[in-house]
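Ticket #4471: structure export looks truncated?
Reporter: QA, pipeline team
Priority: medium

Steps to reproduce: submit the single chain below to the structure queue and open the exported record.
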Amino acid sequence: MRTTGSSGMKKQARILVVDDEPSVCVALEAVLIREGYEVLTAHSGSEALQLMAKTPVDLALLDLNMPGMDGLQLMDELRHRWPDTVLVILTGYGTLESALGALRYGAHDYLLKPSSPADIKTSVRKGLEKRWDKLRRKQLLTRIEADVRALAKGGGEVGPEPPIVDETEAEPVLEVGDLSIDLYKHAVTLAGQPVNLTPTEFNTLVALARKPGRVLSCAELVKAVQGYECDEREARGVIKTHISHLRQKLEPDPANPRYVINVRGVGYMLMVQLKTQAQGG
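Actual output as written to the record:
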């Protein structure tokens, strides 16, 4: 099992390559890393399941013919345990029967070896787009259901729209220095440690992280977080409390913030901290 990635590139999707031929894993790994993906490799179905239990992935690229657990058996297990993972079959022994079987088990695509790097990259890209669209729809449906329940209870108001991946964003993880924000899981880590945020705090951080190093006015933040427009004076009173709470959870010393910075009279910005700078203080 190997886990690799391009350290100089923004984190994108995590892909698992499963093939009993090490040379195939190495070749696919090289192609995918050049695209900026994080790549994990396994040489058997059982090894792939052990790896997935520890580190779920966005897409799995599977060999069909492997000793022990074959590709179809592995697909069946992955589909039931991790239904949102996109499955792509890559095999040197393609038949109509195996292709139909792969489709029945939920394969997004079926590629024959040897496939060109261009075909592999296209299949992976389209598979990931399919995954993002599916998760985006689930997120919207969750919000609609929550709003309907709120209205049914007579509250008269619905909550602000949760942050959704923009069409221009390649993947659902924002990274700013040591800070990592998973938009789908609503999870935040700082230097690898989880940070528990309320939905409003999370939305505030996402708004700042989408434009790191740029000052956002309080009115811009309220619009992004709460979904309505107001003048800067009113917005300042609204957002100040959220910023204070956010600093309490993010900053080593909230009284002297180094991540969420106030530019007096203008607004707030998220500073881009290099990991070496953050560690060095």
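Status: closed, not a bug. The export was complete when the record was re-opened. Leaving a note from the reviewer for reference: Residues 173-280 form a domain with the Arc Repressor Mutant, subunit A fold (CATH 1.10.10.10).
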